[in-house]
Amino acid sequence: MVTEVAGQEVDADDGVDGLDFTALGSDIDNLLSELELSVAGDNELIVNIDGLTASITKPDAAWVGADTLVFTVADPGGASASVSAVFSVKNTASGVQELTLPDEFALHQNYPNPFNPQTTIAFDLKQSGEVKLTIYDITGRMVTKLVDNFVQAGRHKIVWDATNVATGTYLIVIQVTAEQKNVFREQRKMLLIR
Fold first, then answer.
1. Which stretches of the chain are assigned E, i.e. beta strand?
2. How far apart are CA 32 and CA 16, in angstroms?
């Protein structure tokens, strides 16, 4: 049984079972049972969701191709976090299903920028690890932590709602730790206007 997205290769006949999105869905204001997992994509692969766990199967035994799936965990207040992954099944002698993951770490520029009051922050993880995604004001004072937990490898998006924050320049800082080593740190500026 597969329990994480990162770097999995499984026999194509078996599908992918038990992708756990609990880490993507941690929320200080809500219980895990209040969070909801949803999926969007090209709709060729069959995705079954049970709580914060997803299982993926091919539409039929002969299916070959790729499907990009975007998994989103949302709380009752509308805050959400997303991760996308490309699932591809190739017609090879080994019959292996491969998952395409980013080949490097990246913190992308938020969009829109400037923003009012919401902006999307995207980051890529080439390997799973402990992620801290923190927003600071221009003086270096911490405004909020958007992520502070284990995150699976893949492409991730988080929407920050700055409704209760003053107009100004902010820094978004990501720090990734894997195997007890700091493996990535980057920051970007963003501008909130009213």
1. 9-11, 16-20, 36-41, 46-50, 53-57, 65-74, 80-89, 96-100, 106-107, 118-125, 129-137, 142-151, 154-161, 168-178, 181-192
2. 23
CA distances from 150 to 125, 132, 179 (A): 11, 9, 12
Shortest CA distance to 194 belongs to which of 136, 115, 76?
115
Are domains 9-100 and 106-192 of this chain identical in fold?
yes
- The answer on pLDDT for 112 being more than 90 is yes
Give the separation between CA 33 and CA 51, rounded to whole angstroms.
7
| Contacts with 123 (C-beta within 8 Å, 6 or more apart), sequence order | 105, 106, 107, 108, 131, 133, 155, 156, 174
**Domain spans of the chain?**
9-100, 106-192
State the architecture of 106-192 in CATH terms.
Sandwich (2.60)
Topology of domain 9-100, CATH: Immunoglobulin-like (2.60.40)
| Closest of 82, 79, 165, 74 to residue 117, by C-alpha | 165
Q: Is the pLDDT of residue 61 over 70?
A: no
119 pLDDT exceeds 90?
Answer: yes
Q: Looking at per-residue confidence, does 57 or 128 come out higher?
A: 128
